[in-house]
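Example record used in the benchmark description.
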Amino acid sequence: MATYLILTRLDPAAVSDPTELKTIAETVKTKIKERCPGVHWKDSYATLGQFDVIDVVEGDDPKEVERAAMIIRSYGHGSTETLLATPWQEFLDAM
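Model output (C-alpha coordinates):
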Protein backbone atom coordinates (compact mmCIF):
# COMPACT_ATOMS: atom_id res chain seq x y z
CA MET A 1 0.00 0.00 0.00
CA ALA A 2 1.19 3.50 -0.78
CA THR A 3 1.48 6.09 1.98
CA TYR A 4 0.05 9.58 1.54
CA LEU A 5 0.26 12.74 3.62
CA ILE A 6 -2.85 14.91 3.51
CA LEU A 7 -1.90 18.44 4.61
CA THR A 8 -4.86 20.58 5.67
CA ARG A 9 -5.34 24.28 6.31
CA LEU A 10 -8.56 24.95 8.20
CA ASP A 11 -10.72 27.88 7.12
CA PRO A 12 -10.69 30.28 10.11
CA ALA A 13 -14.31 31.23 9.39
CA ALA A 14 -15.48 27.59 9.41
CA VAL A 15 -15.97 27.30 13.16
CA SER A 16 -16.96 29.82 15.77
CA ASP A 17 -15.81 27.64 18.67
CA PRO A 18 -12.71 25.38 18.54
CA THR A 19 -14.60 22.61 20.34
CA GLU A 20 -16.66 22.23 17.14
CA LEU A 21 -13.56 20.63 15.60
CA LYS A 22 -14.35 17.39 17.48
CA THR A 23 -17.72 17.12 15.73
CA ILE A 24 -16.22 17.99 12.36
CA ALA A 25 -13.45 15.39 12.84
CA GLU A 26 -16.02 12.69 13.63
CA THR A 27 -18.10 13.60 10.58
CA VAL A 28 -15.03 13.49 8.30
CA LYS A 29 -13.95 10.13 9.79
CA THR A 30 -17.42 8.61 9.27
CA LYS A 31 -17.74 9.88 5.68
CA ILE A 32 -14.28 8.59 4.72
CA LYS A 33 -15.03 5.15 6.21
CA GLU A 34 -18.28 5.02 4.21
CA ARG A 35 -16.99 6.34 0.89
CA CYS A 36 -13.32 5.31 0.89
CA PRO A 37 -13.09 1.76 2.28
CA GLY A 38 -9.63 1.27 0.77
CA VAL A 39 -8.13 4.23 2.64
CA HIS A 40 -6.58 3.21 5.95
CA TRP A 41 -5.90 5.95 8.50
CA LYS A 42 -2.49 5.64 10.15
CA ASP A 43 -2.29 8.84 12.22
CA SER A 44 -3.19 12.51 12.45
CA TYR A 45 -1.19 15.42 13.83
CA ALA A 46 -2.11 18.98 14.74
CA THR A 47 0.74 21.22 13.66
CA LEU A 48 1.95 24.78 13.97
CA GLY A 49 2.89 26.67 10.86
CA GLN A 50 1.62 26.50 7.29
CA PHE A 51 -0.73 23.52 7.88
CA ASP A 52 -3.11 22.90 10.77
CA VAL A 53 -3.45 19.13 10.40
CA ILE A 54 -1.38 16.39 8.78
CA ASP A 55 -3.10 13.05 8.20
CA VAL A 56 -1.09 9.95 7.32
CA VAL A 57 -3.10 7.45 5.27
CA GLU A 58 -2.43 4.36 3.20
CA GLY A 59 -4.23 3.18 0.11
CA ASP A 60 -3.83 1.24 -3.12
CA ASP A 61 -6.14 3.44 -5.19
CA PRO A 62 -5.07 7.09 -5.65
CA LYS A 63 -8.65 7.95 -6.65
CA GLU A 64 -9.90 6.87 -3.22
CA VAL A 65 -7.22 8.98 -1.56
CA GLU A 66 -8.34 11.92 -3.73
CA ARG A 67 -11.93 11.30 -2.61
CA ALA A 68 -10.81 11.28 1.05
CA ALA A 69 -9.05 14.62 0.53
CA MET A 70 -12.20 16.07 -1.03
CA ILE A 71 -14.24 14.88 1.95
CA ILE A 72 -11.79 16.65 4.25
CA ARG A 73 -12.16 19.81 2.16
CA SER A 74 -15.95 19.64 2.09
CA TYR A 75 -16.82 18.55 5.61
CA GLY A 76 -13.66 19.78 7.29
CA HIS A 77 -13.95 23.27 5.83
CA GLY A 78 -10.36 23.48 4.72
CA SER A 79 -7.97 23.26 1.82
CA THR A 80 -5.72 20.26 1.33
CA GLU A 81 -2.52 19.27 -0.35
CA THR A 82 -1.82 15.56 -0.79
CA LEU A 83 1.67 14.10 -1.08
CA LEU A 84 2.77 10.59 -1.95
CA ALA A 85 5.31 9.54 0.69
CA THR A 86 8.03 6.90 0.32
CA PRO A 87 9.78 5.53 3.40
CA TRP A 88 13.32 6.91 3.40
CA GLN A 89 15.09 3.55 3.35
CA GLU A 90 12.87 2.32 0.51
CA PHE A 91 13.75 5.49 -1.41
CA LEU A 92 17.48 4.95 -0.83
CA ASP A 93 17.24 1.30 -1.87
CA ALA A 94 15.71 2.37 -5.17
CA MET A 95 18.64 4.68 -5.95
